[in-house]
Design a protein that fits this description.
Blueprint (H helix, E strand, L loop, with lengths): L5 E7 L8 E6 L8 H10 L3 E5 L20 H21 L6 H12 L4 E4 L9 H10 L2 E3 L2 E7 L2 E8 L5 H8 L4 E6 L3 H7 L6 E4 L8 E2 L2 E2 L14 E3 L3 E3 L17 E7 L2
Parallel strand pairs: 1-14, 2-3, 3-4, 4-5, 7-8, 8-9, 9-13
Antiparallel strand pairs: 2-14, 6-7, 10-11, 12-13
Length: 268
């Protein structure tokens, strides 16, 4: 966690924007804010800020959802064991989340830079009333299986958020809407499960923390999305962007895998 976060930049061509649209992507803050994220987002000079899930810790123990329908009993047991071993190690290593006011302040500073759109991750099944009040006060748009239409760079843009507790009927209707469609989906695995064969233009994801440990440009570990994960970090199919995330939530340190804010530039 002590290593300096970086700004990773991707250019996606063929998006149809005569005037480039810039998005700053943050994911997996996990109530471990860092003021350097603010400086990196300012450096990106975004038109909008997208937060692709797991900003807050709002879940009941280890009982959070997963879109991986193929997880059998053996994988479930192994996942439970790994969860509690890691939890104990996190206590020993004092890798703890910060007081919630710190994350609230980070979101406030984000909202002062550009409009913020936020989707729901697997750690966010139990938002509190004060969370909703904060989002309303700061003008942060929470996209929990819903979408909004805005005008950006002279184009109709439909921004949606697919929740961990996904709604396939909403997603189907969203995918058929007119306009350039940007979908925030915390889990990259949803790209293969639901999104790949749709007309959704851009998908922004996180969750896998870049594979935690990276060798030869490939991440090794993930949270229930395969070892190694298919989508660890980077751009896939010129339309899926996966962030390596903003925090470290396991006892194993990151290796060759700095925390990051992602700058996405969409051009014609």
């Amino acid at each position: 966690m002590a290593k300096i976060p970086v700004l990773t930049e991707y250019n996606i061509t063929g998006s149809g924007f005569k005037t480039p649209l810039t998005i700053a992507l943050a994911a997996d803050i996990h109530e471990r804010p860092d003021d350097r994220f603010i400086e990196l987002i300012k450096q990106a000079e975004p038109d909008i800020i997208a937060i692709a899930g797991d900003t807050l810790e709002r879940y009941d123990g280890n009982k959070y959802g997963t879109p991986d329908k193929k997880r059998g009993i053996v994988r479930k047991v192994l996942f439970e064991i790994a969860y509690y071993v890691n939890r104990a190690a996190m206590i020993i290593t004092r890798n703890k989340r910060l007081p919630i006011e710190k994350t609230y302040d980070l979101l406030k500073k984000f909202s002062e830079i550009a409009p913020v759109y936020m989707s729901v991750g697997n750690h966010e099944q139990l938002f509190l009333e004060e969370d909703f009040e904060l989002f309303d006060r700061l003008g942060i748009t929470l996209l929990d299986n819903r979408d909004v239409t805005v005008n950006l760079k002279g184009r109709k843009v439909v921004i949606g958020g697919l929740s961990t507790f996904y709604d396939e009927e909403w997603l189907k209707a969203y995918a058929e809407k007119d306009g350039y469609k940007i979908l925030l989906s915390h889990h990259p695995i949803c790209y293969d499960l639901f999104i790949k064969d749709t007309d959704i233009d851009l998908v922004l994801a996180g969750h896998n923390h870049g594979g935690q440990v990276r060798f030869f440009g490939k991440g090794i570990l993930s949270s229930g999305e395969g070892i190694p994960p298919k989508y660890d970090k980077g751009v896939f199919d010129n339309r899926l962007v996966v962030s390596a995330g903003c925090s470290n939530t396991v006892a194993l340190p990151r290796f060759n895998n700095p925390r990051e804010i992602v700058k996405i530039r969409l051009t014609d």
